[in-house]
Specification:
By secondary structure, the chain is α/β, with parallel strands linked by helices. The chain is built from nine helices and ten strands.
């Protein structure tokens, strides 16, 4: 029996007009799938209803892949694909496997000669980099920085030094309720002439993107509390 296809499905970055985030051809492809691997079934079902799922929602099979999923469980998650069922790996927001669970599962799928099809959709990291005006040839995504203030400050100083030495954009994120504290830490730790881009609520109502020097940021701070954001730094 031939294996099915594992589709990597981006999801909208928040509540909004799905037409802005997911192209029609992608919506049509996803709407016909009957098997999914998801982080949260509830929000996955909401997404499928938005795109006009062909099958009755209650008949769609969903397996959970999140930060608690062990690598030993990947084989079971891929079982429907191996028995010929096209399956979607659906992110909670943005692109699967990028700052998101799933890379290990996709690697195992390659080892089992399963065809992988990444679909087009939003990535907050790339959208922020596109809009920042910072170096898009050399950049590094660091994910989350340390939460503890002293360790975070040291990390920010190191990122700034690396950016200067390598002409490299440093990209990182934080849990939305900590974003204001992170912004304040950046302004305290970094040099006045270092450039910072803040990109918040990308593709959504209230989208905010601004690139300024640290000194300019100190004149007026946006309210980022509980707002999803990407931070980009260049020394």
């Amino acid at each position: 029996m031939n294996a099915g296809i594992l589709y990597l499905i981006p999801a909208p970055l928040g509540l909004g007009d799905i037409a802005w985030a997911i192209p029609p051809a992608v919506r049509q492809c996803v709407a016909g799938l009957g098997h999914f691997i998801v982080e949260h079934p509830k929000t996955a079902r909401q997404f499928l209803k938005q795109i006009g799922c062909v099958l009755p929602i209650q008949t769609i099979k969903m397996e959970v892949l999140d930060e608690h999923t062990r690598a030993t469980e990947y084989e079971k998650l891929l079982a429907p694909v191996l028995t010929g069922n096209d399956t979607g790996l659906l992110s909670e927001a943005g692109c699967p496997t990028i700052a998101d669970p799933g890379a290990g599962l996709v690697r195992l799928a390659h080892q089992k000669n399963i065809r992988i099809r990444p679909l087009v959709g939003p990535s907050s990291i790339l959208l922020a980099l596109m809009a920042s005006g910072l170096n898009g040839q050399r950049f590094v995504f660091h994910g989350y920085l340390p939460v503890e203030p002293d360790r975070r400050a040291k990390k920010l100083v190191q990122l700034e030094k690396d950016s200067i030495a390598r002409d490299q954009t440093q990209i990182f994120i934080e849990t939305p309720y900590r974003n204001q504290k992170l912004l304040e830490s950046i302004l305290h730790a970094c040099r006045g002439d270092t450039i910072l881009c803040v990109a918040s609520n990308l593709t959504l109502a209230g989208e905010y993107i601004s690139t300024r020097t640290i000194n300019d940021w100190k004149q007026a701070l946006p309210d980022l509390h509980n707002q999803p954001a990407v931070f980009l730094l260049h020394g």
